[in-house]
Design a protein that fits this description.
The structure is a single chain. It is built from ten helices and eight strands. The chain is an alpha/beta fold. It has one domain: 3-Layer(aba) Sandwich (Rossmann fold), CATH 3.40.50. An eight-stranded mixed sheet has the order 2-1-3-4-6-5-8-7, sandwiched between helices. Helix 1 crosses helix 6. The chain starts with 28 loop residues before the first helix and ends with a helix. The structure holds thiamine diphosphate. Thiamine diphosphate (TPP) binds next to helix 3.
């Protein structure tokens, strides 16, 4: 880690882990893992200067395949875990990784409050449209008529429109990437980590073992970049990410093609910790304060 603190670094190899990856061949987690490391290297954030938080799932197996400070939480609980860490030490970037199963079922309440509270953190939603680790059950985001391992006739419910739901919560940053475009995911994550509040990143992810509908090839054919320059790209959108209504309509309309890139961002809304009256004028972080403040007075109250 010493080497990473030099002015030249950090480098990709600083985030390397000795543990071999256990993801299936062709899993989109490889691309998201690579983009996360590249974004940190781009921002010159060393492994010792970031907290990476993981939910339970295939994506959560990244937690010991990457260098740096990492926490692996309970299923569906990664957002409160990460938000607590971000409040305790607002000086370091916090990135949370979760699956679509956890994020839109077990942990959906936490997603609601993460977004509306605008905690300063990045949330990378690994959207393989199924519960991967438990071998392919339908999630709220599985396409309705797709046969899955525990629902061979498809699920009776309509697929949740996750982007419409997210936009209904007045987010301050919404982006969508896909696991085959590492350069774009890196750009998105770099902006997300710099964002003032809660950055929601929907990462459409190939899952060759259990998702037979939104495959790598399907994603490659349908995804287009709304941030690309329209004069140089045939599939570009020239979209202004300040336009909330346009961003929402682009995000929810996935009938014929899928908008990716930074869809919406505003820096005008302060993060949760910036709005706390009790923290006004604070020059230290709570993690520093527990070392300098006598906390025994509160121990007495609670005992
Ligand atoms: C509260 C709770 N419910 C269910 C489980 C079982 N479980 C562990 S991983 C998993 C699937 C995770 O799917 P997802 O969140 O979509 O992530 P992925 O594996 O696809 O990356 C499930 C259902 C659990 N550990 N805890």
């Amino acid at each position: 880690m010493k080497k990473s603190d030099s002015s030249a670094g950090p480098f990709m190899h600083d985030f390397a882990s000795p543990n071999p990856c256990t993801w299936c061949d062709g899993c989109g987690d490889y691309g998201i893992w690579t983009a996360a490391k590249r974004a940190l290297v781009t921002l010159k954030i060393a492994p010792s200067q970031v907290l990476l938080c993981y939910d339970v799932g295939c994506h959560g197996n990244m937690s010991d395949k990457i260098g740096g400070y990492r926490m692996h939480g309970l299923h569906g609980r990664v957002i409160p875990l990460a938000a607590g860490a971000a409040l305790a030490n607002p000086a370091i970037p916090v990135i949370a990784f979760g699956g679509d199963g956890a994020s839109f079922s077990e942990g959906v309440g936490h997603l609601v409050h993460g977004i509306r509270s605008n905690y300063r953190m990045t949330f990378v939603m690994h959207n393989n449209a199924n519960y991967g680790l438990t071998t392919g059950q339908a999630s709220a985001l599985t396409w309705q008529n797709q046969p899955m391992n525990s629902s061979p006739n498809g699920i009776p419910e309509e697929t949740l429109n996750s982007m419409d739901f997210v936009f209904s919560l007045k987010p301050t940053f919404v982006a969508r990437g896909w696991s085959g475009d590492i350069a774009q995911m890196t750009r998105i994550l770099t902006a997300a980590i710099r964002h003032r509040g809660f950055a929601y990143v929907d990462m459409l992810q190939a899952c060759p073992s259990y998702n037979k509908f939104a495959t790598h090839e399907w994603l490659m054919q349908h995804c287009y970049d709304v941030n690309a320059d329209p004069s140089t790209s045939l599939r570009a959108g020239g979209h202004d990410p300040k336009d909330f209504a346009k961003a929402r309509s682009l995000a929810v309309d996935t009938q014929n093609r899928v908008a990716t890139g930074i869809l919406y961002q505003t820096e005008d809304v302060p993060a949760f910790h910036e709005r706390l009256k009790a923290r006004e004028g604070a020059v230290t972080t709570p993690v520093e304060e527990v070392k300098i403040v006598d906390t025994t007075q509160w121990e007495r109250v609670f005992l």
